[in-house]
Amino acid sequence: MNKKEIAKILRDYHWMINEIARQRRMMNEVNQSITGQYGIEGSLPHGKNGKSDPVAQEAIRREKKSKWIEKLERQVLYVQERIYIITNEREKAVLECLLDGMSIRAIARHMGFSDSHIYEIRDRIVGHFVDFGDNGDFADKLPSNKSVC
Predict the structure, then answer these.
(1) Which of 27, 29, 37, 74 could, after both became Cys, cross-link 42 (CB 3.0–4.6 A)?
(2) How far is residue 24 from each of residues 15, 19, 29, 51, 63, measured CA to CA in Å?
(3) Total number of domains in the chain
């Protein structure tokens, strides 16, 4: 992922978590509007325009929704798998605020910094995520805790 995509994921993380939870609840509910018709309406012929089968249409809609949810989950996991690489205390605080859904301006007020300083910290966080890469090669770039004698 590039820096712009990662910054967008950090900005959207909070609502993505909420949306994943909401969609999972919705997917588990039975949609009553797709039940069959009863009485005379149920025995009448239906047109063949592809829209006459509400169950099939609902299945298609749910399949598309399922793929969208999987995309959101991949983006959320991308961040979650990299949180531990942020070791600077200020960067940790800004990251946590971003993940909690706070805006840059709100974080700046909360921490007593300028908006531009928070953007710089956020950009460093994004840079760490980019350096980490998709295959976890960031560990080679971390300073070791070994003391030199």
Answers:
(1) 37
(2) 14, 8, 9, 26, 13
(3) 1
Q: Which domain holds residue 72?
A: 3-29+55-137
Where do the H-state alpha helices sit in 44-113? 54-80, 89-99, 104-111
Question: Domain for residue 128, yes or no?
Answer: yes
CA atoms 35, 29, 75, 118: torsion sign: positive
d(CA 69, CA 10): 17
Q: Per this entry, what is the length of the chain?
A: 149
For residue 14, which phi and psi values (nearest 5 degrees)? -60, -50
In a domain, 148, yes or no: no
Token pair of 18 as six digits: 């909420």
91 assigned to some structural domain: yes
Number of Cβ within 10 Å of residue 145's Cβ equals 5
Condensed to tens digits (0 to 9), the pLDDT of residues 85-137 reads 999 999 999 999 999 999 999 999 999 999 999 999 999 999 999 998 765 54
* This prediction's pTM: 0.72
69 within domain boundaries: yes
